[in-house]
Write a structure and sequence with these properties.
By secondary structure, the protein is of the alpha+beta class. The protein contains three helices and four strands, in the order βαβααββ.
């Protein structure tokens, strides 16, 4: 998959990153659906364009997007990653 990342504020009270002005979370996505979409296209440039269009542009402007977060360690939960993407069409 591409090296693109999502940049976002989580809105969690007390988050050290989000409380600072100009600071954001930056995470890569490990969602199976996004990776499957990428693998559907033989041409790498077309695949990158399709994934960027769906997973960045359309999700941002046409949908309400939620990240499913996870970690690969039992304790401590210091390294979080995006393991799933949920998006629903915005209400008109």
């Amino acid at each position: 998959m591409t090296s693109d990342s999502y940049t976002f504020k989580c809105g969690e009270k007390g988050c050290d990153i989000c409380r600072e002005v100009g600071k954001f979370h930056r995470m890569e996505c490990f969602d199976f659906g996004a990776n499957h979409l990428y693998r559907r296209y033989e041409n790498e440039n077309v695949a990158k364009e399709k994934v960027r269009d769906r997973c960045f542009t359309k999700m941002k402007f046409e949908s309400d997007c939620w990240f499913a977060m996870g970690t690969h360690s039992l304790y401590p939960f210091l390294k979080w990653m995006i393991v799933g993407l949920l998006w629903m069409k915005k209400a008109s």
